[in-house]
Amino acid sequence: MAMVTVSMLVSLPTLTSPNPRRVNRFWQTTPKTSSSVMTVASGPASKELATAGVKFAEGEEKLPKVVLTSACGSEADVYLYGGVITSWKVPNGRDLLFIRPDAVFNKKKPISGGVPHCFPQFGPGPMQQHGFARNLDWSVIDSENVQGDPTITLELKDGEYSRSMWNFSFQALYKVTLQTKSLSTELAIKNTDSKPFSFSTALHTYFRAAVQGASVNGLKGCKTINKDPDPKNPLEGKEERDVITFPGFVDCVYLDAPNELHLDNGLGDVISIKNTNWTDAVLWNPYLTMEACYKDFVCVENAKIGNVQLEPGKTWTATQHLSIN
Ligand SMILES: O=P(O)(O)OC[C@H]1O[C@@H](O)[C@H](O)[C@@H](O)[C@@H]1O
């Protein structure tokens, strides 16, 4: 019988939670040395949680995942490895996210697709591309159901592996809420160290798309750092287009992007991508460098490219709200 650790952690950042609600504070997959943690036995395959619409299950290669199901028929999968949302199915059954065909679920590399975290480095930079948060196990510390909408909160803290690259103590809390036609996240990074630190970060969202028909609206006028034509020598510029398409290789950072963009995925969906405090955006399509799948997705990433400076005890928070009409 597999063992699942139940955490009694109770203090969370300010997370919006209207009433009525049902709250459960839960488990993590890796043991912690904390007096507030107790261990219970659970079945290995799947576990219905007391929270409606939140189910703990085995995903690909038996990796643990949480399945969120809303009362109106939308569904999302969140893998604890990387804290990555791998699937967001809206009520018509369409999955608006994309997993690359070369994705592996064996922890040998981050899961390629869905909504991976880039933290504490967007990159390039001194550590591995996009940091370490996408290749560590996150813990579930809370779940609730608000009027039929399931929510979980994941946590990542520093450990030996993260400290080998970035020697700071931190706590990341990631709240994921599924509603009928939307998927919302709130990321809160807290400096739990005694010294200041700085980081950059992004939600590297892979959207399913028909690349030739896909376009993004809302970035006109932004300053750009364009990795096309030469990723090693990005060019600064300004976006002049109302509507950005993906006719070839696209890899561009948009500074001070607006708090709402629209993605037409070329498959019949227009996705609103709203944010607070994700000040920048990134568009990416690898074109022929990923011949097997570039036609099937575009990445539209909410990002914080310039370093966030965080003093001890302080928290940086940003939200992303994806929705369809
Ligand atoms: O690590 P992944 O998922 O393969 O994504 C890599 C790409 O991620 C994008 O965010 C960067 O703008 C690209 O430069 C980079 O190539």
UniProtKB/TrEMBL annotation:
Q: Which GO terms describe its molecular function?
A: carbohydrate binding; glucose-6-phosphate 1-epimerase activity
Catalysed transformations (reactions): alpha-D-glucose 6-phosphate = beta-D-glucose 6-phosphate
Transmembrane portions of the chain: none
Q: Which SUPFAM superfamilies would you find in this protein's record?
A: Galactose mutarotase-like
> Any keyword Transferase?
no
Which top-level enzyme class is recorded in the Swiss-Prot or TrEMBL entry?
A: isomerase
**Which example biological process does GO assign this protein?**
carbohydrate metabolic process
One Gene Ontology cellular component annotation?
cytoplasm
Pfam families annotated for this entry?
A: Aldose_epim
Which sites are catalytic?
A: 204, 301
Matches recorded under Gene3D superfamilies: 2.70.98.10
Domain of life of the organism encoding this protein:
Eukaryota
Task: Kindly state which keywords UniProt assigns to this record, in alphabetical order.
Answer: Isomerase
The keyword Zinc-finger belongs to this UniProt entry's keyword annotation? no
- Its EC number(s): 5.1.3.15
CDD domains, per this entry?
A: D-hex-6-P-epi_like
Task: Tell me which PANTHER family the record gives.
Answer: APOSPORY-ASSOCIATED PROTEIN C-RELATED (PTHR11122), GLUCOSE-6-PHOSPHATE 1-EPIMERASE (PTHR11122:SF39)
Say which family it is in: Belongs to the glucose-6-phosphate 1-epimerase family.
Write the protein's name. Answer: glucose-6-phosphate 1-epimerase
| Species for this entry | Pyrus ussuriensis x Pyrus communis
